Amino acid sequence: MSGDATFWGHLVARSRQATSFSELFFLSTLRKKAKPIARGSVQERLRLALIGGYNLYPLHELVEHLLAIRGIDCQRFLGEYDNFVSDILDGSSSLYAFKPDIVFILPNAGRCRFTGSLLDPLDHQHDAAVGAAEHLLNLAKTFCARSGAAAILANLALPDDLDLGSFRSRTLGTDWSFRKAVNLELGLRAPAEVQICDVEFLSARRGISAAADARAWYESKQLGSPDFLVDIALELSHLIASRKQGPKKVLAIDLDHTLWGGVIAEDGIEGIELGDSSPRGQAFKSFQKYLLGLSRRGILLAVCSKNDHARAIEVFEKHPEMVLRLEHFAAFKANWDPKSDNLQRIADELRLGLDSFVFADDNPAEIEIVRQFQPLVTGVLLGPDPAEFIVRLQAGRHFEPRTVTEEDLERTAQYRQERRRAELATSVTDMPAYLASLEMRGTIKEFDSLDVPRIAQLIARSNQFNLTTIRRSETEIQRLLGRPDYRCFTMRLEDRFGDSGLISVVIAKIEGCVFVLDTWLMSCRVLKRQVEDEIMNEIFRLAEIAGCTTVRGIYLPTAKNGIVAGIYEQFGFSRTEDSAAGKEFELEASRYQVRSTRIDVARRAYEAS
What we know:
By secondary structure, the protein is α/β, with parallel strands linked by helices. The protein contains 24 helices and 18 strands.
C-alpha cells in the first residue's frame, strides 16, 4: 500500500475534501503509518509557530498533516495556552528562539468584548473596536519586526447566543456587533506582513452553532467543535501554501452547455438557453457575471471550444442576454481542433505557462483528454447543472488574490493591446521600423512603497523571464527600501497602444566593488521590444555610480526559465562558475557598451523627480 501512487493520490484528495475531525485525524494517522513513496518529494521545509488564547492541540496535528500532503515538511512550535502576548513581548522567549518562518496567532474571541454601556455613543464604541483591532495587529507587527517572520492572524468567531435578540444589531456594544466591527478593522488595517485567517467566515460557512462547542471550551479550552478545527486547519494550510504558489492567471472556458445552454451550431442564436426567462438560462447568465468579475480583477479569460468560429462569435456580438463580450477575452479559439492543442496555442499567444491555466468544461471526456495531453493545466469539471458552476469553479480556490493592483484591473485590456501590436508587426517591413512605430516611453524608478504590492506580485508570478526565481514577500521587499547596500528598481512601459504598466524588476546587491544581480525578471509581454537593453544600460549606470568595477549576473535554472539561459552572454558577460545548481557571469563595467534603443526613457532610478 505504502508504495502505491494511487493510494497517495486518494489520501491527498480525501484529506483536502474532509469535513469531519474523525476522518481527517484518521487520514493523518494513516499517513504517518504508511511510508511515503519518496521523502525526497518534500519540496519545502517550514518552521511554523502556533500561539493563541486556546489549547492548540489537536489543531496542530491536522495542520501538520495538511501541509505534508502539499509537500511541506513542517517543524512546529506550540505555544502554551493563552500565553501568546507574553511570548510576543518577551524577546528572549522560546518563541523567538524557535525562529519560525510563519507564526499563526489565534486570539481568544470570548475576551474581545466592549466594556462600556450598550447606550454609549457610537463613536466611542467604534473607537473601542479600532483599539481592539490595533492591539492584535500591533502584537503581530511586533513579532514580524523582531523575528523577520510572517504572521497569519485569525479574526474572531461570532457568538451563537440569542441574548438581546434583534437588538444585537442596533448597537456596537453587543458581543455580536463588536466582534464584527473588530474583524472589519482587522481586515482593513492589516499591513502586508500580516495575513488574516477569516475565522468569522469559516464559522458562518459551517454554521455558527455547529462551529461552537461550549463543553469543549470548558473541558479543554478548545476554539470550537472538533469538526470546526478541520475548517481552521484547511484554511491555515491553504494560506501557508498560497504564500509560495500564486493564483492561476488564465481561465479557459468552453461555450456550449457552459456559457449558455444548448449547441449554437444546432440550436442557433434564438434557440440557446440564456437569460432571465428560464431558471437554467438565469443560471448561465449568473455564471457569466461571475466570470466577468474574475476578469475585472485581473484573471484572463480565454475561449477554448470545439465550435464553428463564426457562429460562436455571433452569440457574443448579437445575443441581448450575453454578459460577456469579445472584449472581455484575451484569446478566442473556437474551431474543431483538439482542445489540448488550442490550449497550447493560447499559452503561446499569451506567453504564459500552461501551469497558470485552469480549463473549465461541462464534458468529463474533454477534461480527461486535456489532463492526459496537457497535464500542467488544471481541469475543472462543471457538470450538467449550471446552478453549480460557480461553486464548482470556486471549490479549487484557483483565483484567490493576495492583493489586487491597478495592473490587475487593466490586464485584459493590456493583452488586447498586445494583439494590436502583433498585427502592426506583420504590417511593417523590418524590426527597427516596427519598434519606431510603437513610440515607446519608459520610466525607470527605484522601489517605493506604492509599488510594493505589484513588485511582490511580479516576483511571485514571473517564471519564464526570471533569472533566479527568488521569491520575496511584500514584507521582505519593504525591508529593501532605502538599504544602502542594495539598488532596486522597476521599469514601466507605455506606447501608442496603451500602458503596459510595471513590467520589470531588478534587485542588485553591492558587495565591495561587485554589483551582484540577485533578481532580474520581466513580463514576457514586452519581449523583443528592447526593454532588456534599457534594463542592462541602467544596471551598469547604477553600478558605476556605486563605484563598482564589475557586474555579476546569476542564473539559477528551472523548468520554466530556459529562455533566459544565455542572456548574460548575449550582453558580453563571461561565465565564471558553472554547476547544475546555477551559473555565474561577470563583465567589467568599463567594457560594457551602452545599447541604443527606441525607448524614450523619461526618468531613471535614484534621480530626483
